[in-house]
Alkyl transferase (Oncorhynchus mykiss), 335 residues
Amino acid sequence: MSWIREGELNLIEKLSANILKAGPMPKHVAFIMDGNRRYARKRHVERQEGHTQGFDKLAETLRWCLNLSIHEVTVYAFSIENFKRSKDEVDGLMELAKQKFIRLLQEQENLEKHGVCIRVLGDLTLLPLDLQQHIARAVVATRTHNKCFLNVCFAYTSRHEIANAVREMAWGVEQGLIKSSDVSEALLGHCLYSSNSPNPDLLIRTSGEVRLSDFLLWQTSHSCLVFQSVLWPEYSFWNLCDAILQYQLNHRPLQKARDQHREGQALQQHEADRACVADLLQHHGNGKPLDAQRRQEALLNYTASREERVQDFLGALQHKRDSFLTDLTSQAALA
């Protein structure tokens, strides 16, 4: 099964899509694709067949999203917690993932046609080396595409992601790229695996479970959360429309909360910069108080230098991550 299915919506689906698109539409939708194993039990088939059907449903859902002008999708494909499942099931999931990423590499022309950029978010070092290499090749091959984005969370939990972001900031301080006073909520957000993406507007979980299961906890604090009872392999276009409608009904308060949070972050950073400048002036001044204009100049200079340090650090961090993937692709080419 292809990652991107060709095809248009039928007439009724098109009419419904056009009605929905008259209102505010989510630009980024995240899915917890739950229910594959229950689907397999329901249909009296092997678990692996349930997971295969789940992937096929993802391909179909991506087509719906493209037709609805939703240009970014994030999916919870494999949690770190899933390693606790039986060895046979984990091995089967690793093999399925390997097959799908190999297939993706064979579909580069189709991915380029649609401008699909594939990103894999998670701790790849927890995966078998050959799967790491296939993932790296897929990510590197599509990273210049910019029309739509598929983020696959694999070997991922949100707590692991946040802990890793803290380690990245500590690395930046150790390397002298940033100061400890540069560490902030906003900077931590830029160090997450998902730093190249806007936060999801809408998160959908299937199968009737009403929990996030350690998925995008940081990123979805101001997202619309929709929990649907349908099992993932049975998901339909109409289930997606229902979730979007719920997003539209809650759009105004969600947008207000996002704006307030953004303003609060900016104010918090401004106050932190002022405190740092006051401390510097106290330690390096000549004992004479500065007038308001010179204090303002000192604040502007400090803010500019901090922003430059942070951008240099984020550039170095991106280079480190890109080099990790490039090294994996080089290893694959030599194998």
Observations:
- The chain is about 60% helix and 10% strand.
- The longest strand covers residues 148-156.
- The CA atoms of residues 277 and 295 lie 8 Å apart.
